[in-house]
Structure formats: structure tokens, C-alpha cells
Amino acid sequence: CGVLMYPQLSVVLSNGKGGTVLFLLRLLLNSCTMKTLQFIPAYGNMEEIQKITTLICECVNPLFVILFGHYAGMYLHSPKDGYEFLILTDDASDESMSKIYYYLNENYPVTDRKEKHLSMNLLPLGFVNSELNHNYFLSKISTQGLLLYDSGKNTLWKRNNFNCISARKEVEHISSTYLSLANQFLTDAKQHYSLKEYRSTAFNLYQAARLYLWIAVKVYYGYVPKSHNYIYSTYSLARHISGGLYELWDIADIGGKHALNCLNNFKNESRFKKEFNMTTEILTSFILKIQKLAEETTKICEFRMDLLGRINGKEYGEMRYIQQSP
Q: What is the pLDDT at residue 317?
């Protein structure tokens, strides 16, 4: 078993591996961003956060579980200020992410929680360490996140030497290359709609939505998860980037899930389905939604480029840890 940590005690008890304790204490003593735990929002909800963390560990046997965002006292957080977890494993898949959400809902329903909003990011540890130097999202978590669980099997972070210049160049490349392509897909969709070419309308709407979501997630998180239901899984992450994206579709509602599945199915149904009977009302609704998605994605790119242009690279310290007993 690993190490679960709670704020009641000022010592960390390990599973018998002395190196784990020494590692945690060494980082804690070197920390230059440590905050008083009583003033971090997570402190008032630690029992609930502990329960969720325990269930995550039961479900996927992670290497590390880290709390970030609003409840970790970070400026970088979801527009709904809910719990945000970064779960690091040997390997990560869309199926594992779905499995965690299902397991949580079965064993700790949303109706039983004080905090209703929850966002989780599941990533392989190797990928995180390889991306740390030019990924703003992961770099901020490495310096300001709160470690909730340590399996004791791996070193958490490699040295964080975040390179603002390379990160900004990547965002500029994504914006200049892919944003114009997504805009063209949306323009083509509108043109086909005006000509009553509804198959082509639907196909171009899918392409536009897929690319806008890819851009938003790639620019903000620095990675895009693989999934069979691409639109749904990517939007599930993207909606935590801004209030505008969050309000586009309610994935907790059956209508929101149906809309995203419908949009995802446009890829094949618009080309191969013998009878494609899509109402003009539904297509109009999607055009309006994806126009809003385009506006939000453009803002995300502009904001991230501006932010990276202003960072001097000296604001990064070490990881903060909640000291807890098993």
C-alpha cells in the first residue's frame, strides 16, 4: 500500500519504506511556496477529499493522486471551483477514466457530497515527467498542487525548469496552424447549410467541433486524451477551462450527453448512413453552439499566449505537501 496523507498530524507515516518518508520531508523542507493549510479551501473538506482519494486508489491503483485548482489554493482552477484531481499511473486510458467516474458514483454519489463539481485528469507518470519543462498546466501543479496519495514506487517530479519561450511558441504554432483550419470547417458548414446540403453540413460541424476542442485542450492542458467517443471525452475536459465552455452542454443531463454523442456520430453517419434525416432545427442549434465554441477557443489561445509572454520563469518553487498519517 502507499501513503495517504491527512492534515491532522505533522508527521508522515510510511508503509515501511524509509525512502518514502525522507523524500516527502526533504521536498517539504525545501519548499518555497508552502502555505498555511488552514487557509487552503481543501482544509475544510478533507474528510470528503480523503474519501474520494481512497476510492480512486481502490479503483485504479495509482502511483500518485494530487489535488489542484481552487481547493489547493491555486489561481489556476475550474470555473465551477470544484475538486480537481491529477491521477498519475503507469499507463492511462479513456476506459480507466470512465471506470473511475463510475466507481465514484456507485460508492459515493454526487448527492451525498458537499462539493458537487469534480474534474479528474488521468495521465501516465512518464508522460508528465517528459512534458514538465514546457507544459504550463503540469508545471503549475508541480509547484502548487497538494499531494494526497503516494504509492512509494516512483519519484514524483523531475526537476521543473519550465521554459516559457518554448511553451509560447507551441501555442502560437497551434493557433496559427489549426485555428484557421477549424474556422474554415465552420464556414464550410454554414455554406453547405445555406445550400441545404445537410450531410456536408453535419460532417463539417463534426470536423470543426473536433478541432476546436483539440485546440482548447491542447493549449490549456498540454495533452489530448485518446478516446473512442472523442467529442464527449474531450469536451468533458475542455468544459473546465472556462465558464463559456462549461455552459455549452450539461454532461450530467441526458440531453447534453445525447447532443455530444449525436455530434460525434456525424463523422460516420453523414457519410455512410443510407438515410440521414437530421432536422434543420438540430443543425442550426449545433451551428450556434460551435460558433460559441470557436469564440471561446480563440480566447483561450489569446489568453495563454499573453500569460506565457508575461511569465518571467522565476515563480516556480517545489511541490507543497499535506502532511498526513495513513
A: 38
Closest CA to 287 of 191, 211, 219: 191
Phi, psi (5° rounding) for residue 307? -60, -50
Longest alpha-carbon distance in the chain: 70
Q: Which three cell numbers stand for residue 182?
A: 477549424
Burial class, 222, CB count within 10 angstroms (exposed 0-12 / middle 13-18 / buried 19+): buried
Distance, CA of 10 to CA of 71 (rounded, Å): 20
**Highest-scoring range by mean pLDDT, 128-132, 164-168, 246-250:** 246-250
Mean of pLDDT values over 105-122: 93
In angstroms, rounded to a whole number, what is the distance separating the alpha carbons of residues 318 and 324?
18
Angle among Cα 277, 278, 280 to the nearest 5 degrees reads: 130
Asked if 301 and 179 count as a contact pair (C-beta separation under 8 A), the reply is yes
- What are φ and ψ of residue 108, in 5° steps? -150, 75
C-alpha cell at 73: 489554493
Residues 78-91: what's their mean pLDDT? 90
Q: Which amino acid is at 260?
A: L
Decide: 259 and 209 in contact? Cβ < 8 Å. Answer: no
11 grid coordinates = 508527521
Predicted local distance difference test score (pLDDT) of residue 31:
39
Residues 6 or more apart whose Cβ sits within 8 Å of residue 105: none
What residue type is assigned to position 29 of the chain? L
Q: Picking from 25-29, 91-95, 137-141, 295-299, which range would have the lowest pLDDT averaged per residue?
A: 25-29
pTM: 0.80
H runs (alpha helix) in 61-197: 94-107, 125-131, 136-144, 164-174, 180-194
Q: State the pLDDT at residue 300.
A: 95
∠ at Cα 165 (163, 168), nearest 5°? Answer: 110
Cell numbers given for 181: 483550419
The CA-atom distances, in angstroms, between 225 and each of 149, 236, 279, 287 are 23, 11, 31, 25
- Beta-bridge partner residues of 122: 87
